[in-house]
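During the second year of the project, the team shifted from modelling isolated chains to modelling whole assemblies. The rationale, set out in the original proposal, was that interfaces cannot be judged from single-chain predictions alone. As a representative example for this report, we include one of the complexes processed in the last quarter. Its constituent sequences, exactly as entered into the pipeline, are reproduced here:
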Amino acid sequence: MTNTPREITRRQMLRRVGLTALVAGPAAGFLSSCATSGGSEAAPTAAASTAAATSASNPFGVKADAPLEVVIFKGGYSDEYATQSHEPLYKKAFPGATIKHQGIQTIGQTLTPRFASGDVPDVVNNSGTDALDGGALIGAGQLLDLTPLFEAPSVDDPSKKVKDIIVPGTIESGLGGDPAKPYTLNYVYTAYGLWYDSALFEKEGWTPPKTFDEFKTFAEAAKAKDIVPFAYAGKNASYYAYWMILISAAKIGGNEILINIDNLADNAWNNDAIKQSAAAWAEIGKFMDKSYEGLIHTEVQTQQNQGKIALYPSGSWLEAEQAKDTPAEFKYAVAPTPSVTAADKMPYEAVRAAAAEGFVVPAKGKNAQGGLEYLRQMLSKQGAKDFTERTKSLTVVIGATEGLTLSPGLQSVADMQTAAGQNVVTFSTFEGWYKELETELRKQTNALMFGRISAEEFATKMQEAADKTKNDSSITKQTRNV
Amino acid sequence: MRHGKLTPAALRRYGFIVSFLIAPLALYIVFFVSPNLQAIQLAFTNSRGISPTFEYVGFENFIRLFDDEVFWAAVRHHGVILLAMPLLSLLIALFFSFLLNLGGGQRNGRLIGVWGSGFYKVVFFFPQVLAVAIVGVLFQAILRPDKDGILNSALGLVGIDPVGWLINPDLALWTIIGVAVWQAVGFYVVLFSAGMASVPKEIFEAAALDGAGRFTLFFRVTIPLIWNTVQVGWVYLGIAAFDCFALVQVLSVDRGGPDNATTVLPLEIWRQAFTYYKFGYSSAMGVALVFLVLTFAALTLRVTRRERIEY
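Output from the structure prediction step:
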């Protein structure tokens, strides 16, 4: 059973992890395809040895007729953007190349044995609930350093480098390893917040609450109208709720609260900001029916489309994900999470935004240069525009929406972004780094939001889990400074 | 069977047998024996499963199991499932198959099943035909926790508030056991029917002539006569009780929740391997599971051993 679109959940898993990537290398043979057949790793060979000459239009020296294999996560964005736009763009640049495309949901389960045997694709959209573990991959030298991509001339204007035509922070979001190198291209620009139907809010004369006091007043008002003020799906999307708890904690105490959590700092979870945030959200949880713990995200999202739920925590993929079920009069809009205290370090407008949806190039692919070139084509204006058009999601490419009419939800994201300015809540990298801790957080978030534990117990249990991760020698530790 | 020198005749005979066995045996070794042995080997390593390199860490993975509260929660759940699921399934199946074969009284001096028993046999067997994943999806709709759930909306008609079948930590595991029983019963009804059919009818008729009621007929005659079949069913169901992966994966809150209330070993093995990428530790859990299953099977066969009744 596959839980469909959870495309953003593992998105930053490839950050800041790993070792030096080895470039290219012949596919390991039959023998190494057994799980335990021993460490016969292929000797690394320089990528250049199999490459053609480089030029401004072919900066990586891709062999024109080398076949390219692309694996795309077929989730909320589907994979048409690849088959209908990005792959044709690549073929336009290299008409002699054949492209093998695979659109799947179980990236990890499908590709793990291929990585183990050395027969890897050239581009992997590593996403979804069953994504590959980036930390382990980089630890094994399986991913290619993307620095040449960001230093290469861009497709549309060879006088500008790729790194100059993408949103600042994108490269940093894909950093990994020590010394840190960019291993992941995060392609989609995502913002998180509370989603609502602006048409419904207008009709009822509501505005999204700006403080938790307002939130409670609002909750009573919504309840009086038989509308659930806030709900999320406990069965498979409890992380939507813990995002809100983490965002609120960062608003109270600043981004260092979240950075400390990522770094497994002592008593990071016992910080007052976490407890205050958890307590505030637990109060809102009381307005939720217990049954939401047993529903999945699409069921809850459909209820919102039917006007039964006012505010729903999610990211900017929501509008596209629900496109088929959204009635014509329903107008998606997004608001930042309310402020918890008057002394919050970040203003109400602060928003969690991040580059997401990771693309990686396996180091031992047969056409790793082609993999880099594919990513360069994705970052062309045409590639980005086509992506936005097909998926209703913004990309990290600057100015790629020119000539496009944005949907209400996407416009709302853009507005929220403008209002936030420099007040950006950082993304929690532990979600990808330490899955044990993340799994525990899902569990405890449900327990907190459905009233089985207090905010105090929530903090204690999470601290225990964080300490357990810290003391587990089998887990590779990672740290971040920003 | 002659042992000793390999005469040409013996060679021919063994060659004939071996030629038939070699293909299935090769398949069995490649796809069953070797992965299992590799799993045992992996249990002593720190393999992350995505690279052919790993180190041997001795018994570290097994020592870690002792402190793993989720592992013990899963083992406890297997204990509960092991007690409840086979017992409930077998009792219900025995009762149904008795009714279907012998419970309808006598006609023309012969014992028959209740009216419509042919139809019921098919209906009872139905769940067995469905893949577990389909059963899971079906029950997702049936057990949905709000008033839109099939079961809850039926309860709503008689004024009962929606029950959180899978979201109440005290109830969730029992709900899953219930679904497992629902799926298992049909097969054992058919199995026991076959068992009862192979017992000569004269025995039942003689007992009935001697004045045995249905109750006596069931407990004093039927069960002892098909005890072997019951025993086999018990072992099958016991082994099934160590699985339950698909049902828990599909039905439970956040795969094993709420608060670990429904988690089972196969699910944790899967999580350790494919979520945490700890293939070594995951394999250690797998080895532990194998020993649990083997212990159960050996104990059951020993405890339930009885004189076989020849007829």
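Chain B has a mean pLDDT of 86. The beta strands of chain B are 106-107, 110-111.
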